[in-house]
Structures are given as structure tokens and as C-alpha cells.
Design brief:
There is one protein chain. The protein has 396 residues and is α/β, with parallel strands linked by helices. The chain is 39% helix and 11% strand. It has a 6-stranded parallel β-sheet with strand order 3-2-1-7-8-9, sandwiched between helices. It has a 3-stranded antiparallel β-sheet with strand order 5-4-6. Helix 4 packs across helix 7 and helix 14 crosses helix 15.
């Protein structure tokens, strides 16, 4: 995955203009999801049915208690010193892995406790109504497959629910790994329990964390007496430990651990990494192909909760644009390249040709579901909603 776009994002472009209120946004999204395939679609829709693919980002999970990246309370916004680890750094550096796993150990509990929010459940309901074909998510929290297992989800950047060995490629559940880390690092485990009790890990704001007792050094590291990052230990891959694999050069690897079972730096294999695509790491070819096929099999795309700062997501919307697919965006704040996605919109548009809303997904999507259900409830409800939508269009 390429390093994310860090330039300034443009202010949101509201399309249609009256989608600047929740009601207007709902009307526009209803028109977007209900419209027939565009006659400009290339190649044309074979069955004439509208099929929407969702592309979601961190913004849809904020209501679950997770931070996004560029929102008002996002990681990059509140913590200016935040720097993600890079793939080669993780693979090549034992000390870098200690630091990564120490931070991950502290953060895992909040993620593990978090659950899908109303936005995810609304996606499930829209899928059950036959309005969605599939979901592509950049998120690694697993909320989409949990909320709607029957609606296909492609996890573009992997998932945190398990680890994968870089040598034997076997997986290990993250919950099991957390228990191993607690056993190997009792001082850190006691510190984690204390910080969870005072709620110091419930925020990404460094100042608020300090007020709750989480002390940090000037470089942002956790200040834990008698337990710097260099003391943190992590286990070896159990499969490689039991049967060391052959290396790519044909030589026999060795996997060694200390008396407690922690991975030893004398090892040449048995390194576990999170089953996510790290910065600087390539997305698997089969995942790239599956994402492109999801775009090509749909007739329109709706982006939810993403600024498209990562190239892997932005290129999918670019691909949709090249197919003349109508594009919808529901995101708080600016989106990379959004002005180019809507540059060719001309003529009357109530949302059927394209929509851009600056609203929260967890509040707007459930209301959209209620609206779409009303349309299907009967002629009186359909007429009322049609009239409201028409009035909305006349206000343009």
C-alpha cells in the first residue's frame, strides 16, 4: 500500500445543492440508489438493473468508538507526531516489531470490545432490500462481515482479527496472540489494566491521555517505568516453532525462543505480522483483481466515510469514473480528487446522476433505510416520498 496522500483536501462539494441538509441528503441518496443504470455506462448493464457497490473507510466506524484519520477527532488531526510503521521496517527490525506489538497490545482491547454501529446495520438492511451488490472496505476492524455476512465484503487492506506468519503463512487468532503477549509481558499487562480502568486509552488526544495518567515522552512513546519498548517480548509462530520451514534460498530456517517462549533474535523465521496490508506492502494480486471486478460488475459506486487518501481506494473510484459510473460520496470533510469525479455532471440532477453529502453515516444511513422502506410500503407512502423528492428537486 502506498503512503497516503497528505496534501490539503478540498472543501466538500455538495451535490445536488439542496443535499446540504439531512433531509436533502436522504432524498438525493434515495434517487441515487433507485435510479436505472446510466446509459453512458461502459460496458452497458446487461440486465438493466441498478447494482451499487459501496466503498467504505474509517469514517463509518467512528460511531463504534474507533478513531478515523483526518476527521476533527482523527488520529492525524489530534496526534501530529503519529507515524505508522512501514512493512520493511517491521520485517527487518526486531526492535521495531517490539515497539509495534507494545502499542498494539495497548490498543487491542478497545478494538476487541467495539461493535458495528448503526451505519453498518443500515448497510445490511440496504443489502437485504436488494439495493447493494457488494462492499469494498478499507477498514481492518471486521465490522462489515460481522454486520452483514450475507452481503459480500472485500477487505481491501486485510483485517486485524488474526495474524499471519511471513514464512509459513499460517494464521493465528489475534485474541490468542493477546493472551501470549500478556503472559510474556506482565508489567505491560498490569499497566494496560490500569489505563483501561481510568479510560486513558479511550481517546487519541495526547493531552487528554496525559490528563488521565498516560504519560508520554516527547517522541510520543508511552512512559512506562521499568518497561521501555526494548523490554517488550512477542511469541514466535507456533507452526514454525514446531517445524521450522525451508527458506526461499533453499536453506533450513531456525526458530528459537527464550525460556518463556518469546521469539529470539537468533531466529531466521517464525515472524508473525498482523493480517493487514501495511504501508509499503503490496496488496495481494487476487485482492486487487477482486476489487476491480467488484467495480466492473456494478453500475454505480457509493463512497462512505473515506477521504480516499490511500491510492488503493482512490484508484477504484477513478476506475468507476472511467466506466462512466454514477458516483456518490457520503463523507464528513473533503475527499481527494472529488472535484474531478463530478466535473462532468450536467443537466437536471436530483441525485440520480451523482451525489455528494457532508453528513455522518451512522445517523443518515438508518434514516435512508426508513425512507427506502417507505417507498416499498405502498402507493401512499411512495407518492408522499416522490412528492417530497420532486419538491426538493424544484428547489434546485
Amino acid at each position: 500500500m502506498r503512503i497516503p496522500y497528505t496534501g490539503p483536501l478540498p472543501p466538500p462539494i455538495i451535490i445536488p445543492r439542496n443535499a446540504n441538509t439531512p433531509f436533502g441528503a436522504i432524498c438525493a441518496l434515495q434517487a441515487f440508489l433507485s435510479a436505472a443504470p446510466s446509459p453512458r455506462l461502459q460496458p452497458p448493464s446487461r440486465d438493466g438493473k441498478s447494482k451499487t457497490v459501496l466503498l467504505t473507510g474509517a469514517g463509518i466506524s467512528v460511531a463504534s468508538g474507533l478513531a478515523d484519520y483526518r476527521g476533527t477527532a482523527g488520529t492525524y488531526t489530534l496526534n501530529k507526531t503519529y507515524r505508522p510503521i512501514y512493512y520493511n521496517e517491521f520485517i527487518d527490525n526486531h526492535e521495531a516489531r517490539k515497539r509495534y506489538w507494545a502499542r498494539s497490545f495497548l490498543g487491542w482491547t478497545n478494538l476487541h470490545r467495539a461493535r458495528p454501529n448503526n451505519g453498518h446495520w443500515a448497510v445490511k438492511q440496504l443489502g437485504e432490500m436488494g439495493l447493494l451488490r457488494s462492499v469494498i472496505t478499507q477498514n481492518v476492524d471486521s465490522f462489515h462481515p460481522v454486520a452483514h455476512p450475507d452481503l459480500p465484503t472485500l477487505e481491501l487492506h486485510g483485517y486485524l482479527r488474526s495474524l499471519v506468519c511471513i514464512n509459513c503463512h499460517n494464521h493465528l487468532p489475534r485474541s490468542d496472540f493477546q493472551e501470549f503477549l500478556s503472559t510474556l509481558n506482565p508489567t505491560w499487562a498490569a499497566f494496560l489494566a490500569e489505563m483501561l480502568e481510568v479510560g486513558a486509552l479511550d481517546t487519541e488526544n495526547p493531552d487528554e491521555r496525559r490528563r488521565k495518567g498516560l504519560k508520554t515522552n516527547p517522541d510520543g512513546d508511552v512512559d512506562l517505568p521499568d518497561a521501555p519498548y526494548s523490554t517488550f517480548r512477542y511469541p514466535a509462530c507456533p507452526t514454525c516453532l514446531a517445524k521450522p520451514p525451508m527458506l526461499k534460498d533453499g536453506s533450513q530456517s531456525k526458530v528459537e525462543v527464550d525460556n518463556d517462549g518469546a521469539w529470539s533474535s537468533s531466529s531466521t523465521a517464525g515472524i508473525l505480522k498482523p493480517a493487514v496490508v501495511m504501508f509499503g506492502e503490496s496488496i495481494a494480486a487476487e485482492v486487487k483483481i477482486a476489487a476491480e471486478e467488484a467495480i466492473d460488475q456494478a453500475s454505480r459506486i457509493l463512497v462512505i466515510g473515506s477521504s480516499l487518501a490511500t491510492y488503493s481506494a482512490w484508484r477504484l473510484v477513478k476506475r468507476a469514473k472511467e466506466r462512466n459510473m454514477p458516483i456518490g460520496i457520503l463523507n464528513l470533510g473533503g475527499v481527494r480528487g472529488e472535484e474531478s469525479f463530478f466535473a462532468e455532471l450536467k443537466g437536471e440532477n436530483n441525485g440520480q446522476h451523482g451525489v455528494r453529502c457532508n453528513e455522518r453515516a451512522d445517523t443518515l444511513l438508518p434514516q435512508l433505510v426508513d425512507t427506502m422502506r417507505g417507498i416499498r410500503a405502498g402507493p401512499h407512502a411512495r407518492d408522499a416520498i416522490k412528492e417530497a423528492t420532486a419538491s426538493f428537486g424544484r428547489m434546485e
